[in-house]
Amino acid sequence: MRAAFDEGLPLIILLENGFTDLAKPGGQRMEACSRGQLLFLAPWGHHNERLSIRRDQCLALNDMARLICESPSPAAL
After folding, report:
1. Residue 74 gets which letter from DSSP?
2. Nearest to 15, CA basis, from 37, 51, 35, 4
3. What is the pTM of this model?
4. Fewest Cβ atoms nearer than 10 Å: which of 9, 17, 29, 48?
5. What digits encode the pLDDT tens for the residues 8-29?
6. Whole-angstrom Cα distance, residue 36 to residue 6?
């Protein structure tokens, strides 16, 4: 992932734990987001518990990433 980021390739990071109301990336990640190089998505709400990601969640996140990558445009989602 670091090599792809350093090359300026587009990345999608899907997270199990959602974002707080004021969450935002910092530094290079923020710059990459503003350029459209980096996208953070969390389909589920934020929680404070330390939970291990489940297999069904991993499979769902992989399916979401595949759909995004195969989509001809963001509007198609």
Report:
1. G
2. 51
3. 0.72
4. 48
5. 999 989 888 889 988 889 999 9
6. 14
